[in-house]
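During data preparation, we tokenized the protein backbone, and the record follows.
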Amino acid sequence: MGIRIAERADVEAMRQIYAPYVVNTPYSYEYEVPDHGEFLRRFETLTARFPWLVWEENSEVLGYVYGSAAFVRQAYGFLADLSIYLKEEAHGRGIGRKLYETAEEILRRQGYTRVYGVVTADNEGSCRFHEALGYRKIVTFEKSGMKFGRWYDTHWYEKILRDCPPGQPFPVSWREIDHSGLF
């Protein structure tokens, strides 16, 4: 099937995709997998303003991407963050690229000017992924995450989505924009 808008019914499948990243890797700095209620709360909170998309094949969710605010102060309102998680068997098939590019286009149409990806430095695959999509590493926070008894560096990647003319209106909710040609 491919890309579609995530629904409440997808929450448990997405939570199951996320769980191994929390339990087995330093790629998520969470220590415990959020329970279903917490994951649903995050989903409902973020989808009020930001896109949340899934990749589905044969009625199975293989991955997802979602946007969020990069910072909380109002002046940062033109900046967004993207996060993506895929099942192991979905890696290397171009699914992540298609999800990310679609989410970027939605953010661009909403009025966001820059998008960020925050990556654990040890996640070389994600570093290469962001660089291949035109992101540039703008900072490394050394020893910024403690997990599994050791420190990890964190890279912050940035991609410019559109010009930043003064006085432009703040981005709108992704539900208010035209989604034609995206899915």
